[in-house]
């Protein structure tokens, strides 16, 4: 019996040691928040597959002035979308694989948001004004 207690204590000590050795970066990844990304000076975050990711994104949505949601006509989120942001003159600022939720921080100006999913492409002109948020919803068949 004493042997079992000693063995259990040893396992507990080993488990605590392993948890204490997790690097802080890896611990941050366990928060459920997708990775913050940057391209052409535009900071963005995308994801939303699963409740934990959606909740984590909801908590930071106020940090972004462009909110894009991609869903099927049934309302189910679509996670296989490519989002591109262009100037009105057509200059591509970013293009990335995106989950059903995509948030970006853009300077004030006029843009074209283009989304492609399952061979279909949709575009929407947007204006980002100081202190406002632009919401775009793409619906796919």
Give the number of domains: 1
Q: Tell me, briefly, the overall form.
A: globular
Question: What is the mean predicted local confidence, pLDDT?
Answer: 82
Query: How is the CATH topology named?
Result: Immunoglobulin-like
As residue ranges, the low-confidence spans are 12-30
> Roughly how many Å apart are the termini?
64 Å
Query: Helical element count?
Result: 3
Give the radius of gyration: 21 Å
The assigned structural class equals alpha+beta
Please report the first level of CATH classification, the CATH class: Mainly Beta
CATH level-4 homologous superfamily: Carboxypeptidase-like, regulatory domain
Order of helices and strands: HHEEHEEEEEEE
Largest sheet descriptor: 5 strands, mixed
Fraction in helix: 10-25%
- Strand ordering within the main sheet: 1-2-6-3-9
Strand content: 35-45%
Q: Give the number of DSSP strands.
A: 9
Provide the CATH architecture.
Sandwich
């Amino acid at each position: 019996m004493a042997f079992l207690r000693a063995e259990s204590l040893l396992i507990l000590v080993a488990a605590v040691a392993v948890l204490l050795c997790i690097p802080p970066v890896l611990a941050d990844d366990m928060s459920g928040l997708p990775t913050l990304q940057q391209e052409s000076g535009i900071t963005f975050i995308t994801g939303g597959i699963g409740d934990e990711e959606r909740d984590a994104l909801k908590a930071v949505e106020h940090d972004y002035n462009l909110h894009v949601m991609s869903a099927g006509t049934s309302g189910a989120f679509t996670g296989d979308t490519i989002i591109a942001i262009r100037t009105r003159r057509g200059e591509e600022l970013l293009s990335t694989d995106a989950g059903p939720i995509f948030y970006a921080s853009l300077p004030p100006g006029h843009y074209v948001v283009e989304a492609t999913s399952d061979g279909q492409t949709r575009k929407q002109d947007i204006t980002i004004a100081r202190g406002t948020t632009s919401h775009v919803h793409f619906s796919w068949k």
